[in-house]
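Let us work through a complete example step by step.
Step 1: write down the sequence.
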Amino acid sequence: MGKEAGTEADTASSAPHPGDRSPGDRAPDAPCRDAATGERTHLYGTFAGPHTTVLGFGPASAAVLREVAATYGQGPGVRACRVYAAHEDHGTAEPGSLVDDQGHAAAAYGIGAGGSGLVAIRPDHHVGIVAPAGDPGSVREYLRRLHGAPGMVDAVR
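Step 2: predict the structure and record it as tokens.
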């Protein structure tokens, strides 16, 4: 299951690895390229604005990102962003996708070469949850708790 801010998983006693990010950490920036135009950009450009950003690394993250986009849209609440490794085919990349051509983004988030994972970045530009791409349930639950169920009024907020 993914690590989420304010949970027992935050304090699990495991030795940190360089680039590992935990919930509550400031989201690191990294240089990359826009997948559609090839122009240089940075992750911080993707985080700009009052929304949660879900970064997906590796092909295994694609289905989760499509689900996030379909559920929450690309409106002001949640943005899905596929981060392609330099060796991956990104010819049919979704708008807003990035190419981590130097591997800095994957390294900054502790995603190994050729690895996959999901990282939700809160609107305040801190890490909200880190999960394996094969654990979409933790990302769904995190987004539901933060943004409510789509199409429903959340009377608690």
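Step 3: interpret the result. Helices lie at 43-47, 62-72, 104-108, 136-147.
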